[in-house]
């Protein structure tokens, strides 16, 4: 069986010790994103639904938020709107399954900067981070 | 509302999506077995991951396998990390895999208004799924670490005549 290893991105100009909030109700998806971000020296904060994301945002003021769309308690679109209303400079990237284009468009209109599609490619995740967390 | 069983007609979308997702996530192309169609009831495996469809197309999509295969699949998705127990993390990995395949399938079906329910993982032996009058189409996919069975049970709502 071929295992995927995610190596730290070296020499790509990513600032050290930036804080990233990972929001997803699936523990596996949070773990996968952490597996990409932690080796690249980011601090990762987690939330498992939109309400927790708002609370974590207020508590930690992260540099970037990865936000899932479909979650219990509060969905990602509602959370994006709520965070944007309190923090207009918040930088958020939607994490979407294929087939959720309409929700992504809504989220971009609400202030999300970009989106990544599941299954995540490590390079695409890091490209987003490089783009928004310099 | 009257409708039609379209499981057999739509199975190929789910097979194509499985190839795409397995290729991206597991870096492996499965070998497809023989398609079988059932009228109402499908026997389960030890581990079954289910996503529901709602809207113009309604029904279910399952990934089913034995526990050894499920643990190997979860391990592969976690970069080769050992999975001794089929725990919350392994269950979450399998659920997300099912979600990705279902989402990818809907993209290819391209029928407006179709929605997916959050995935659920059902474990146990001797369980039978009744698909009521939807029928179901089933195909096994062979991967290096075991067999995964795809089950599609979909009903299409009839559109009003012009």
Written overview of the protein:
The complex is a heterodimer of chains A (134) and B (162). Chain A has 134 residues and is α/β, with parallel strands linked by helices. Chain A has helices spanning 27-37, 50-60, 76-86, 101-110, 122-132, and strands spanning 19-23, 43-47, 64-68, 92-96, 114-117. The longest helix of chain A has 11 residues, at 27-37. Chain A starts with 18 loop residues before the first strand and ends with a helix. Residues 1-6 of chain A have low confidence and may be disordered. In chain B, strands 1, 2, 3, 5, 6, 7, 8, 10 and 11 form a nine-stranded antiparallel beta sheet that branches. Chain B has a two-stranded antiparallel sheet with strand order 4-9. The longest helix of chain B has 22 residues, at 88-109. The A-B interface holds A 1-6, 25-29, 31-32, 35, 70, 72, 97-100, 118-119, 121 and B 21, 24-28, 72, 75-80, 88-89, 92-93, 95-96, 99-100, 102-107, 114, 116, 118, 144-145.
User: How would you sum up the major sheet of chain A?
Assistant: 5 strands, parallel
User: What's the main sheet of chain B like?
Assistant: 9 strands, antiparallel
Strand content of chain A: 15-25%
Query: Which quaternary structure do these chains form?
Result: heterodimer
Distance between the termini of chain B: 17 Å
N-end to C-end Cα span of chain A: 36 Å
The class by helix and strand makeup of chain B works out as alpha+beta
What series of H and E elements makes up the topology of chain A?
A: EHEHEHEHEH
What is the average of the pLDDT values of chain A? 86
Query: Which bin fits the share of residues in helices of chain B?
Result: 25-40%
Biggest sheet strand line-up of chain A: 2-1-3-4-5
Low-confidence stretches of chain B: none
User: What value does the Rg of chain A take, in angstroms?
Assistant: 14 Å
Helix and strand element order of chain B:
EHEEEEEHHEEEEE
What is the count of helical runs of chain B? 3
> Number of helical runs of chain A?
5
């Amino acid at each position: 069986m071929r295992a995927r290893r995610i190596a730290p991105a070296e020499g790509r100009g990513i600032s050290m010790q930036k804080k990233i909030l990972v929001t997803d109700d699936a523990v596996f998806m949070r773990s996968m994103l952490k597996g990409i971000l932690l080796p690249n020296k980011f601090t990762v904060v987690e939330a498992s639904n939109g309400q927790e994301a708002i609370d974590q945002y207020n508590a930690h003021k992260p540099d970037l938020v990865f936000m899932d769309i479909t979650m219990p308690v509060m969905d990602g679109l509602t959370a994006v709107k709520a965070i944007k209303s309190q923090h207009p400079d918040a930088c958020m990237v939607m994490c979407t399954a294929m087939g959720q284009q309409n929700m992504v468009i809504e989220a971009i209109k609400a202030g999300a900067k970009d989106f990544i599609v599941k299954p995540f490619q490590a390079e695409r995740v890091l490209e987003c981070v490089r783009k928004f967390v310099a | 509302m009257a409708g039609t069983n379209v499981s057999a007609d739509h199975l190929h979308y789910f097979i194509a999506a499985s190839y795409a997702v397995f290729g991206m996530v597991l870096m492996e192309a499965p070998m497809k077995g023989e398609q079988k169609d059932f009228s109402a009831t499908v026997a389960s495996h030890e581990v079954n991951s289910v996503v529901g469809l709602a809207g113009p197309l309604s029904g279910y999509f399952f990934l089913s396998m034995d526990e050894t295969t499920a643990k190997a699949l979860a391990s592969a998705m976690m970069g080769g990390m050992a999975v001794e127990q089929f725990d919350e993390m392994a269950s979450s990995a399998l659920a997300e895999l099912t979600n990705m395949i279902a989402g990818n399938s809907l993209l290819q079906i391209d029928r407006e208004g179709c929605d997916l329910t959050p995935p659920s993982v059902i474990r146990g032996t001797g369980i039978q799924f009744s698909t009521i009058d939807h029928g179901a189409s089933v195909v096994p996919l062979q991967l290096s670490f075991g067999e995964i069975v795809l089950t599609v049970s979909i009903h299409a709502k009839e559109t009003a005549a012009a």
